[in-house]
């Protein structure tokens, strides 16, 4: 049976569009904007870890890197939101 190859990078654009819509829709409720930002960061980390796990390149350094990048993005963008 042939394995289905799913590229996780194809999901980043739709997630970005949904995130931008969420930022616009919740523009008067900053806490919901922050929650959707955190949700997007978690989805980013999960997608990255799944990608590296599938390619067998997942190491502790890669995990820490993606977590730190997500935390940096949250800290920068939360300054714009709240």
UniProtKB/TrEMBL annotation:
UniProt keyword annotations, A-Z: Membrane, Transmembrane, Transmembrane helix
Keyword Transmembrane: yes
Top-rank taxon, per record: Bacteria
Membrane spanning residue stretches: 7-26, 32-50, 62-81
Name the UniProt record assigns to this protein: Uncharacterized protein
Species: Candidatus Daviesbacteria bacterium RIFCSPHIGHO2_02_FULL_43_12
């Amino acid at each position: 049976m042939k394995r289905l190859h799913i590229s996780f990078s194809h999901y980043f654009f739709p997630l970005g569009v949904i995130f931008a819509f969420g930022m616009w829709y919740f523009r008067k409720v900053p806490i919901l904007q922050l929650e959707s930002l955190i949700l997007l960061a978690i989805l980013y980390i999960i997608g990255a870890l799944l990608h590296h796990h599938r390619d067998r390149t997942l190491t502790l350094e890669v995990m820490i890197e993606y977590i730190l990048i997500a935390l940096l993005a949250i800290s920068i963008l939360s300054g714009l939101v709240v």
